[in-house]
Amino acid sequence: MGKNREALQDEWKQLNEKPVDLFEWRVDYFENIRDVDLIVDIAKEMHQETKRPLLFTKRSEEEGGQAVSFKENEVVQLYESVIESNAVHGVDIELRQPEKNTLHLIDQARNQEIDVILSYHNFTETPSAQQLEEKICEAVELGADVAKIAVMPQSKTDVITLLQVTEKMSRTISIPLISMAMGTNGIMTRLAGGVFGSALTFASGAQSSAPGQVPVEDVEQVLRILRKNMGS
Ligand SMILES: O=C1C[C@@](O)(C(=O)O)C[C@@H](O)[C@@H]1O
C-alpha cells in the first residue's frame, strides 16, 4: 500500500520476514499511478525481492479503493502494461468493469499465463445469497481463474449468509473462490473461511487495506491450529 517506491520497499522488507504466501500490491495507493514504466519496474523489483507471487490490484473508489481520478481506459492501459511485463502472477479485475475490457484483459492475461481474479466488493451491506451467487457465477462465466466476493455484514446473520454462499459455491463452481466478510463481525471469516471453502485470506502487513483485516502473524497462528487439528 506504499505511496512511493521507498515506502513499498520498507513494507516488503518488513513483510519478507513474515509468513506470507503472496503479496498484493494495491496500486491505487501509489502516488505516481500514471507512471506505468515506473510501476512495472517496481513490480519486477518487488517480485525479485519478495520471491513470492505478486497480485496486482487497482481498487476503485466505489469498491473501497483510494480516490484516483482514473478513466476506464486508463485502468485497462495500466493492466495491459503490467500483464505484458510479466512482472506479476495475478491481477484483480473488478466485475464492475465493462465486460469488453474484462474479456480483453483476461485474453491478454491468458497469453502471459497470468491468473485473473474477478472480484466484487460491497462496503455497505451484504446482498442476499442469491445476489452473491449471481456475482460468483458472473465471474465464472466471464472466464475468471478465481472468483472473489467481499461484503460488509450488518449482523451475524449476514456473516452466516456469506459463509453459506461460500460453502455451497466452492463445491459447485470449477474455479477457486475467495470470500470474506469485512469489519469486526466478519473477522472469523478471515480466520476460518477456509473451513467453508474460501481459497485464500487477506491479512494486514504494514497497514490494513480493508476493515477487519487481522495481522498476518495472528492469521498464521489460527491457520496452523486449524490445519493441525483438522488434518488438512
Ligand atoms: O479484495 C481484497 C480483499 C480486501 O478487500 C479484504 O477485505 O481483505 C482487501 C483488498 O486489498 C483485496 O484486494
TrEMBL record:
Organism this protein belongs to: Salicibibacter cibarius
Keyword set includes Lyase: yes
Function per UniProt: Involved in the third step of the chorismate pathway, which leads to the biosynthesis of aromatic amino acids. Catalyzes the cis-dehydration of 3-dehydroquinate (DHQ) and introduces the first double bond of the aromatic ring to yield 3-dehydroshikimate.
Lineage of producing organism: Bacteria, Bacillati, Bacillota, Bacilli, Bacillales
Assembly and oligomerization: Homodimer.
Gene (name only): aroD
Domain of life (superkingdom): Bacteria
Positions contributing to 3-dehydroquinate binding: E24, W25, R26, R59, R190, S209, Q213
GO terms (BP aspect): 3,4-dihydroxybenzoate biosynthetic process; amino acid biosynthetic process; aromatic amino acid family biosynthetic process; chorismate biosynthetic process
Name of the featured protein: 3-dehydroquinate dehydratase
